[in-house]
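ESCALATION

Customer reports they have been waiting on this structure for their group meeting. Please prioritize. Original submission:
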Amino acid sequence: MTQETAPTLILYGIKTCDTVRKARKYLSDNHIDVTFHDFRQQGIDSHLLEQFIEGLGLKALLNTRGTTWRNLTDEEKQSTADPLAARNIMLKHPAVIKRPVLVRADGKMLVGFDTETWSTFLQGAN
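Update from on-call: job pushed to the front of the queue and completed.
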C-alpha cells in the first residue's frame, strides 16, 4: 500500500499572469518541483483564502493594481475597507488576489515574486 504525501510546494496564481510566468520559469530553471493551482481554472474556496489571509494578511493579498481591480465598481473598491467585504470580493473575483502565492509544506507562504526572497524561502523547504 502506497501512502500519498502532500506536495512540498504549491504555487497559486493565474497561468496567464506575467509574474506567475516568471515565477514558474524560475522554479523550472532551478529544477524545483511544484504543484500549480490556477485560480481561474480551479478557483479558490473560503478555507484556502482564510489560510492565505492568516499567513500573509488581507492587505498584502489585495491586488489593487490589476485589471480586475480597475473593473470593479467604485462601491466594490470602497467596500474592501471592510475585511468581510474584501474576502467576498476575492472569492468572487480571484484575479484580484495578488500573485503568485507560494506555499511550503510547513505552511509558510510568500506572495509576489522576487528571486532573492524566493531563494531564501526555498532553502527553508529542504
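Sent to customer with the following note: The radius of gyration is 15 Å.
Escalation resolved.
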